[in-house]
Amino acid sequence: MQVLVVDDDALAGEMIAAVVEEMGHQPLVAENAPEGMEKLNEHPEIGLIISDMNMPLVNGIEFFREIRQQGNTLPFILLTGDDPEAARQQESGLNACIMKDFSLDESLPGIVRDVLGGQ
Q: pLDDT higher for 73 or 87?
């Protein structure tokens, strides 16, 4: 499955992509929400979106809302360096919101499996 990774921090984007690849999925990396939207339109086979919260131009929640307004219902995981519960309260439709920290390589695979229903 193709997984769209949207993160303005190139190093974090590469790390997330590596975790996704280790799980057997094919990552596509975008450095901001507008580029992520382009990739969504270019690659209809994308099956999951993992996005950073704090990005310039359009933040992760705004990106989530924009794709939902366009009728896109793909599973969406939001990563934040702040309190994940605050982001969940701000946008209850997120499939998951987790802390973007040093343990992401350990926590992300389980969250991805949960969101995808064990795939």
A: 73
Contact 15, 5 (CB under 8 A): no
Instruction: Give whole-number Cα distances, 110 to 14, 23, 81, in Å.
Output: 19, 10, 19
CA 43 to CA 59: how far, in whole Å?
21
DSSP string, 17-34: HHHHHHTT-EEEEESSHH
Per-residue pLDDT at 118 exceeds 80: no
b/e code 71-105 from CB counts within 10 Å (16+ = b): eeeebbbbbbeeebeebbeebeebbbbbebeeebe
3-state secondary structure of 111: helix
119 band by pLDDT with thresholds 50, 70 and 90: low
Pairwise CA distance, residues 50 & 37, whole Å: 13
Residue for token digits 């997120």? 94
- What is the C-alpha separation between 54 and 8, in angstroms, rounded? 8
